[in-house]
Amino acid sequence: MTDPSPAASGPPQIFDARRRAARLARSARRFREADFLHRRAAENAAGSLEAILRDFPVAVDLSAQPGAFSEAVAASDAAGRIGPVSTPTSLDQRAAPGAAALPLGPGSTDLIVSLLSLHWANDLPGALAQIRRALKPDGLFIGTLFGAGTLKELRGVLTEAELAERGGAQARVSPFADGFDGAALLQRAGFALPVSDVDRFTVRYSDLAALVRDLRAMGETNVLAGPIRPLSRAVFARAAALYAERHAEADGRIPATFEIVHLAGWKPHESQQKPLPRGSAKMRLADALGVKEQTGD
User: Fold this and answer.
1) Long-range CB contacts (< 8 A, 24+ apart) of 233-239?
2) What is residue 3's predicted lDDT score, i.e. its pLDDT?
3) pTM to 2 decimals?
């Protein structure tokens, strides 16, 4: 296993920011071939904004792979209410959320979006706190990150294959956040009316090599801190065989589980509805987002 390396101060450095930036740079040419997860997250974010009948003139996209959100908003009913979406130009900033100060002044932004990037933050509460400080009072944050169920099949077969071939195994798949912690993380970072939902789904691949090609094109391969021993052909072949043996469906294709945690929270403002008492668990999503709830006929 790869042990997190302690920083001189602050949280353990679970992820290597330079390695992450290199993975993103390498994936840029092929990202459009495997951007379906980012498009799904962006369309969900745009759909949430369609229901919020207010303007967000200053909007910032902090996603490591920017562009999907702007495209989704432009095609949505919220297009006229979202100002031009800007993106930090620094790849290092997008690669390692929270590692450096955001290039945004305190209280300067109406809307901040971060899609499928925050799972790489070494200090997730700190990254969220930076985002909250950059928002204007009553400003909105919408974020998504991979949750704990993501790539659970891959995690299992890689570990088993490496143990069998080498007698020991490194962590190969990132530790992802539990979706049920999302609202608590937002509250800890100072957000009001925090909301967390989880979107779980399965993508089917012809084989393990096809799954790995997509992960590389997304820039989502291993960036854990510390030395990484390359996978040998023997380990990969055994992992592919185990994956097919344990998980293959009737047509021979293998499933890959993805879990996207959706977060939403507001910068506190005196005009906001007050939450119900702790433990009541009766806050409605419509109340938290400040929209009217619609019912079908």
Assistant:
1) 234/165, 235/158, 235/161, 235/162, 235/165, 235/166, 236/161, 236/208, 238/161, 238/164, 238/165, 239/157, 239/158, 239/160, 239/161, 239/162, 239/208
2) 43
3) 0.85
